[in-house]
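Please, is this right?
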Amino acid sequence: MTGVGRRTFLIGAAVAGAASTGTAHAAPPVFEHGVASGDPLPDGVLLWTRVITSGPIRWEVARDEDFHRIVKRGVTRTSAARDHTVKVEVHGLHENTRYWYRFRVGDVVSPVGRTKTGGCGSELNFGVTSCANWSAGYFAGYGYLARQDLDAVIHLGDYIYENVDGEVRVQDPPHKCLTLDDYRRRHAEYKTDQHVQALHSAHAMIATWDDHESADNSSSIGSPQHDPATEGPWGARLAAATQAYFEWMPVREGRLDRTFRFGELATLTMLDLRSYRTDTTILGAAQRDWLIDTLTTDRARWQLVGNSVMLSPLKVPPLPGLPQTNPDQWDGFPADRELVLRSLGERKNTVFLTGDIHSSWANDVPLGDQSVATEYVVTSLTSDNFDDLLKVPPRTVALQVEAQFQALNPHVRFVELDSHGVSTLRVTADEVRFDWHYVVDKKNPDSAVARAHSFRTRHNTARTERVVL
């Protein structure tokens, strides 16, 4: 597989197995890695924690944070075979309802987590995030989302980074992840971060992966950053990365391409654009057919699609040594894209939610001379973007390049290449609104975060438009 990494892309634009737990896990404090919930359904949710014990682990779900009204409880166990992580499927809950949960081993009680089941009233609110490089900065944006009133957080990939790339924080292990122990240690490190723990304890997460959960620009058949001669078979490394991800993330195990329904207001379809990718397809035939069937038969008002790499076609300014398109995005797989977009027919309420490219975009998604959907791209939480890579002040050199992008791509209605942060998504019957919230300084763990830009898609228009703040 060939592709252009985010670093190459942005620099060019600027010029234009084992069960071992590892030493990092030796005798940690009980519940050192916090609690989490995810994959909310109308009648239930998945709960997660990690604790080293051979004894029973008790869990409780309540309607109040003081646990006076406990509605579900049970007992489970864990072992070194799954790195002492714990997952509990809870069902029989009320839809669109807030709950609190906790775990207990003997007299030791975990932190309390808050979650919410699926379903919907007249409005939905999500956090949206992507590209969290530990060594490149602190996760103040996660802390910001933890303080918001949200139904869930949508994570669009690169929850961890497998490499060691940055100067702000030291990573564990201090080398590129290759083995199961390496990936487990990297996930464990992320789950010790105060903002990561705050985010997970405040909201359920709906996540998919991109490439850095395994290796840069990865696919089912390899990665240009993996050398089998010195790093072993790609299949073994991918299996290790996959096992660690499903152990450490609050997702149901087995598949990441799945659908969440929020009443009649919206359906959220999460894609897996790495597991089935080859040189000729980004989706794989089975996932492509499933996606088309979902989009064409769903009767919710809005169809939201969690999509890890940019769907919209994107011409890159013609610069030496840089392709005019990025083949790691959907541009590398135009046949898949056309089949999906043609399936939308006359429907105008499909909104793609995208990460990966470390910058902010609002796009009208074209098919021929028509816009058939819209796409909103969340910037990176910390991963280096335009001004970081060039080591120039923000909002200087980027301004000219942003103008070039929009001149070459009239369907790009907004692009901002410099800032880091998170986004929020509000869904009502009349519109979908996407806001970008930027951190002031990613190197400051207590950085302020503020809303900077806002766009919306009105019902039945397939167009983005700026909202004046």
